[in-house]
Design brief:
The chain is of the alpha/beta class and 616 residues long. The protein has three domains: 166 residues, Sandwich (Jelly Rolls), CATH 2.60.120; 87 residues, Immunoglobulin-like (Sandwich); 280 residues, TIM Barrel, CATH 3.20.20. The chain is 17% helix and 30% strand. Helix 7 packs parallel to helix 8. It is globular, with a radius of gyration of 24 Å. The protein starts with 26 loop residues before the first strand and ends in a 15-residue tail after the last helix. The chain binds (2S,3S,4S,5R)-3,4,5-trihydroxy-6-oxo-oxane-2-carboxylic acid. (2S,3S,4S,5R)-3,4,5-trihydroxy-6-oxo-oxane-2-carboxylic acid binds next to loops. (2S,3S,4S,5R)-3,4,5-trihydroxy-6-oxo-oxane-2-carboxylic acid (GCB) binds next to loops.
Length: 616
């Protein structure tokens, strides 16, 4: 870091990120479907300035990489262009017109006809453009969205661009999952009245049988505000006036893991008796707290079971798909899991909403994966280049990371399913500079959300002896692969190593521990009578060994297997058509280990296996 006290993120403003919803005063149009598509260089110098000259069409939402048979598109580094025409409904005269892009990975530029109306960096959070002054009710406009997939040391996640001998630009990065890009989530056009609700924040508590709901509303005008809490039958259960205050809900039904219950907060901006704008924000009443080595939801100990996941399916890449959404949650339920981590980036809002409605607990992660140059030094963690330095990850990286944190919290703060923030995956937390880099970011997220615990997923090289940041966090999330990357094929030695390391973390930090990643690749159909890596039996035995160790450790509050399903990676000799640590294959068929996990997890209801904790 050039100057650790310099905190550039303090100047960054976060745009409110209320999810667009149809309400009595707002209309919403989905712009998904087939758009004209072209790669930069093949569609003219200013592709937005006329009809895109291309034979290609691409579906939105989807990553574009696996759609076409042309490797120049799959491996393209830089901008691609999406285009379609949009008609503004004629009834929207006098309304504010807003375009919302749920995700443009990793940078987006929006043009209405010839005009640039929005630009945004950060591939997994939404952004908006106010089109009121540039479009007209009843008229059509040409909508062009440029999407750039480049990763550098100033982006989150980071990466490096090099030029190969034949002049092609190549992208490398420090994470294994494939760098899918494009418009992987929906695009929307919506209306609001000229006076409108900008943002809503809800923080809930439990006071005996009464639920407390602290709310804060911001509006673009100074006008009276009324809020009403409705239960799931639409009955009004509490009401208040003003832009901030506390509602009390008697005989509240709390949101519980496995037993979701949602209320709606109807926020109205008033002009006398007239409602100028109305917005509905779902919320659940629940509390989260870390006490000693326990993780409490609604005051009761909770034990996480589940997975690190990816947004990854065949052909679609990271494209959001409601079919896989429903099926993945079904499999989560079938296997008895109660949680997942949004490794390694914020997931589509539809996923978060579904988790809210179905009582699945989420650890919500930023896209800060790969702040670790020791990993490129091989499995020994040999440092070939300092991770945190002016030439590598510096205060510009930190500013991008801060922006990612701000946007994640702004988008997901009202989800009851989100019980913890994870601000990075496997940073080089044992290296000089890590504390200067992370301390301001932990301060930032606590300032943005004082209610949720904060964690990071610690890499193997960061041990209880050398980690420099663990004390800043509430929960220790460890990624450990004893028996896979270390002591490969020797589960007895792996068990000793794991046991010893976990004891060390408990003794030094006295905080709750979650195994945020543990896993072994398995090729479906490969079997052996011996402890042979890559077989289905070995994956099962590897997990059983881990579970023995977890169950002996009183500070353990959860286990999330790496990974829910096999997923696509960049090319590399460690991977056979992707990462095969999935408990399900990429097309969601169970490997043998799935049945073993189901036997372990089913019926736990948030209790530790063999533990004496009450159900959460
Ligand atoms: C890790 C990473 C994860 C990888 C996994 C693996 O530690 O956090 O992104 O996919 O290891 O399988 O190597």
């Amino acid at each position: 870091m050039t100057d650790p006290l310099h905190r550039p993120y303090k100047q960054l403003e976060t745009t409110p990120m209320l999810k667009p919803r149809p309400t009595p005063t707002r209309e919403l149009i989905n712009l998904d479907g087939l758009w004209r598509f072209g790669v930069d260089g093949s569609v003219g110098d200013a592709p937005w300035s006329s009809r895109l000259d291309t034979p290609l069409e691409a579906p939105v939402p989807a990553s574009y990489n696996d759609l076409f048979t042309d490797s120049a598109i799959r491996d393209h580094v830089g901008w691609v262009w999406y285009q379609r025409t949009v008609r503004v409904p004629r009834g929207w005269d006098g309304q504010r017109v807003v375009l919302r892009v749920d995700a443009a990975t990793h940078e987006g530029k929006v043009y209405v006809d010839d005009r640039l109306v929005a630009q945004h960096v950060g591939g997994y959070t939404p952004f908006e453009a106010d089109l009121t002054d540039v479009v007209a009710a009843g008229q059509e406009f040409r909508l062009t969205i440029g999407v750039n997939n480049e990763l550098t040391n100033e982006t989150i996640p980071p990466g490096t661009i090099t030029v190969s001998a034949d002049g092609r630009r190549r992208q490398t990065y420090l994470h294994d999952f494939y760098n899918y890009a494009g418009l992987a989530r929906s695009v929307w056009l919506y209306s609001t009245p000229p006076a409108y609700v900008q943002d809503v924040t809800v923080v809930t508590g439990l006071d005996g049988a009464t639920g407390t709901v602290d709310y804060t509303v911001s509006t673009n005008v100074s006008a009276p505000v009324r809020v009403r809490a409705l239960d799931d039958t639409g009955r009004e259960v509490a009401t208040a006036d003003g832009t901030r205050g506390t509602l009390r809900i008697d005989d509240v039904t709390p949101w519980r893991p496995g037993k979701a219950y949602l209320y709606d907060l109807v926020v109205e901006v008033l002009d006398g008796e007239d409602v100028m704008d109305s917005y509905s924000q779902p919320f659940g009443v629940r509390t989260v707290e870390v006490r000693g080595t326990k993780f409490l939801i609604n005051g009761e100990p909770f034990y996480f079971t589940g997975f690190g996941k990816h947004e990854d399916t065949p052909v679609r890449g990271k494209g959001h798909d409601p079919v896989y959404l429903v099926h993945d949650f079904q499999l989560t339920d079938w296997i008895g899991a109660n949680s997942f981590r949004t490794s390694h980036y914020p997931y589509a809002e539809e996923v978060m909403d579904f988790a809210d409605r179905h009582g699945i607990v989420v650890i919500d992660e930023t896209a800060a994966v790969g702040l670790n140059l020791a990993v490129t030094g091989g499995l020994a963690g040999r440092v070939t280049q300092r991770t945190f330095s002016p030439e590598t990850f510096n205060d510009k990286t930190q500013a991008a990371h801060a922006a990612a944190i701000r946007e994640l919290v702004a988008r997901d703060k009202n989800h009851p399913s989100v019980v913890m923030w994870c601000i990075a995956n496997e940073p080089s937390s044992n290296e000089e500079g890590a504390r200067e880099y992370f301390e301001p970011l932990v301060d930032l997220i606590r300032e943005l959300d004082p209610t949720r615990p904060v964690t990071y997923a610690a890499v193997m090289f960061a041990t209880f002896k050398n980690d420099l940041i663990a004390d800043l966090f509430d929960v220790l999330s460890l990624n450990r692969y004893y028996g896979w990357y270390v002591a490969t094929g020797d589960l007895a030695t792996a068990e000793t190593y794991l046991e010893g390391e976990l004891r060390g973390w408990v003794e030094r930090f006295g905080k709750p521990i979650i195994m945020a990643e543990y896993g072994a690749d398995a090729m479906p159909g490969l079997h052996s009578v011996w402890d042979q890596p890559w077989t289905e039996e070995y994956q099962e035995d590897y997990l059983a060994m881990n579970h023995r160790v977890f169950d002996r450790n009183e500070a353990f509050v959860g286990e999330q297997v790496w990974n829910f399903a096999d997923f696509q990676t960049s090319n590399g000799i460690h991977r056979v058509d992707g990462n095969r640590k999935g408990i399900f294959t990429r097309d969601r068929r169970p490997k043998a280990a799935a049945h073993a996990l189901r036997r372990r997890w089913t019926g736990l209801n948030g209790r530790k296996p063999g533990g004496d904790e009450r159900p959460a």
